[in-house]
């Protein structure tokens, strides 16, 4: 496909590259999880966070299994299902199901208990669990989920999260913006950062990309700061990427 973006592909000066095979790995039998940042038994002083992005877990939950009821507080917790579906229950009385195309947010605030279970007997669940430090502590706990039109991310960046309740996607207590795009091979797009001082963390969901002048493969992560925009180019057909713009100051 013809390149739809003519922005120069400038060399990226300030970045950190996390290759997929460098992540922490835990296999609990019913749960297999890859940790971009330190989590549970995976502790790496050089992989604690990227700005306010604290956790990026790439989880696979077996049939009939899941996370039992457990607590959180003062964290913005985002779940992005990639395959299959999960049943959510929490201490606020919510019982829902999240599936591909849905975005789930919990503002844990003063404290919340929840569980996430794969009740299917014949299908795995794959999803991303993301934690963001909030810019307000001890807020009233909140739960929300929405279903997005997957066609709206074809050859463009679909916003899935922002700080604004009136904006597209879910909202959180932080000056962060998330987008997902699914691109034809050779298609390029630019992302201008929305707030000065923010950085951006790109995580490849499927296929291969070039971000700036850096080549990324599936499940690679790239954190970039001190930039006003980035350019992304799909190097394979149907390549999919998650962009997470976050404040760099905790």
From TrEMBL:
Fe cation binds at residues 70, 72, 114, 116. Keywords: Iron, Metal-binding. It comes from the Bacteria. InterPro entries: Pirin, Pirin_N_dom, Quercetinase_C, RmlC-like_jellyroll, RmlC_Cupin_sf. Binds 1 Fe cation per subunit. One of its GO terms (molecular function) is metal ion binding. Residues 23-132 form the Pirin N-terminal domain. Signal peptide: none annotated. The keyword Nucleotidyltransferase does not apply. Residues 160-246 form the Quercetin 2,3-dioxygenase C-terminal cupin domain. Its cofactor is Fe cation. Belongs to the pirin family. PANTHER family: QUERCETIN 2,3-DIOXYGENASE (PTHR43212:SF3). This is Pirin family protein. It comes from Flavobacterium pygoscelis.
């Amino acid at each position: 496909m013809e390149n739809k973006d003519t922005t120069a592909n400038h060399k990226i000066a300030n970045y950190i590259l996390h290759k997929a095979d460098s992540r922490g790995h835990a296999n609990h039998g019913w749960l297999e999880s890859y940790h971009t940042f330190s989590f549970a038994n995976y502790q790496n002083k050089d992989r604690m966070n990227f700005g306010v992005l604290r956790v990026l877990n790439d989880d696979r939950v077996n049939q009939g299994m899941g996370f039992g009821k457990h607590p959180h507080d003062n964290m913005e917790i985002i779940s992005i299902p990639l395959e299959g579906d999960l049943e959510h229950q929490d201490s606020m009385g919510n019982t829902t199901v999240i599936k591909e195309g849905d975005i789930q947010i919990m503002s844990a605030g003063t404290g919340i208990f929840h569980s996430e279970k794969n009740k299917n007997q014949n299908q795995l669940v794959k999803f991303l669990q993301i934690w963001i430090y909030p810019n307000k502590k001890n807020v009233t706990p909140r739960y929300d989920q929405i279903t997005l039109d997957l066609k709206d991310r074809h050859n463009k960046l679909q916003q899935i999260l922002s700080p604004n309740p009136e904006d597209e996607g879910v909202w959180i207590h932080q000056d962060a913006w998330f987008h997902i795009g699914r691109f034809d091979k050779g298609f390029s797009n630019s992302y201008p950062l929305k707030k000065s001082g923010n950085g951006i963390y790109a995580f490849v969901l499927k296929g291969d990309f070039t971000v700036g002048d850096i080549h990324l493969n599936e499940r690679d992560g790239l954190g970039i700061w001190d930039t006003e925009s980035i350019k992304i180019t799909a190097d394979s057909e149907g390549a999919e990427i998650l962009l997470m713009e976050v404040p760099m100051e905790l």
